[in-house]
Amino acid sequence: MTELLCWIDGVVRPAESVSMSLASDASLRGISVFEGIKAYRAPHQDRYCVVSLHSHIQRLQVSCELMRLRVDSLADRVNEGISALLKAETRSEVYIRPTVYLRSGYYGTVADADLVVLARSAADHRAPLRCSIATQRHVPASAYPWGAKVGAMYAFFRLARLEAVERGADEAILLSTDGRVAETPGASIFVVRAERISTPRLEMGILPSITRLTAIEILQRRMNIEVIEEDLAPRDLCAADEVFVTGTLDEVRGVLSIDGQSIGSGETPVTNALLTTYLAACRVGDPTPPVGSAFFPGHPS
């Protein structure tokens, strides 16, 4: 199977067969918004469980509004694209990326935008992370529409991640302009200490992550562990019993060390229990909150 499939203009095709003008505002200025969605093939069934699809589509619509991108029938078209792609899929876990972008028009106008939906294999992102505190600071909430998932923002996130890799780490941890813990380039951060879990507040300008919300609800409703949204300093990470991150691709992923300093004793019972509960719901499919699975037929195995 082609590694990267694409649904565009109502047709599924290999992504490498699709071209875009270098003069488009998506190319020139990165004017696009997107979602990252995970689909799990149900065990012994020819169908996929797509996690929190309704919530992802809602956030994509909000992103379009905040970035002044107009797309007709967005929810219907995203569902159509995902359905067409998954009917061609046999892989056990699929990463789906609907993207709304300016293929034509001028960036100084409110122009009609286009939709493309990509699908690729979701690589295993479950090994514990070695992290590094980034020297660059997170863009403050007052500087951009932080409720939107904007493609251009990831140019900044890329630099933070490259710096972390150059330091021998796997991922960066971004701080706010006043030194508080914000997020990683692709995930939300949680701290476990003395049976108490904390995570940074959304008001700092971090992405309103859907997986973050799902994790909070699982922890509080199913595991009876309270989660506090509060300001965190880097020292809170280093003094924690456990640190983990949550995101579409990371799912629930433990942090092994930060700038070479090990986290806790190395035992991660909360992280492990949360990951087990989360994956069980995602793989079998749970249409009720917080997972909110939607079901689509896959290619017969």
TrEMBL record:
GO biological process assignments: branched-chain amino acid biosynthetic process
Record has GTP-binding as a keyword: no
Pathway(s) annotated for this protein in UniProt: Amino-acid biosynthesis; L-leucine biosynthesis; L-leucine from 3-methyl-2-oxobutanoate: step 4/4; Amino-acid biosynthesis; L-valine biosynthesis; L-valine from pyruvate: step 4/4; Amino-acid biosynthesis; L-isoleucine biosynthesis; L-isoleucine from 2-oxobutanoate: step 4/4
GO molecular function: L-isoleucine-2-oxoglutarate transaminase activity; L-leucine-2-oxoglutarate transaminase activity; L-valine-2-oxoglutarate transaminase activity
Catalysed reactions, semicolon-separated: L-valine + 2-oxoglutarate = 3-methyl-2-oxobutanoate + L-glutamate; L-leucine + 2-oxoglutarate = 4-methyl-2-oxopentanoate + L-glutamate; L-isoleucine + 2-oxoglutarate = (S)-3-methyl-2-oxopentanoate + L-glutamate
EC numbers, comma separated: 2.6.1.42
Stored InterPro entries: Aminotrans_IV (IPR001544), Aminotransferase-like (IPR036038), BCAT-like_C (IPR043132), BCAT-like_N (IPR043131), Class-IV_PLP-Dep_Aminotrnsfr (IPR050571)
Sorted UniProt keywords: Amino-acid biosynthesis, Aminotransferase, Branched-chain amino acid biosynthesis, Transferase
Enzyme class of the recorded protein, top EC level: transferase
Physiological role: Acts on leucine, isoleucine and valine.
Family according to the record: Belongs to the class-IV pyridoxal-phosphate-dependent aminotransferase family.
Name of the featured protein: Probable branched-chain-amino-acid aminotransferase
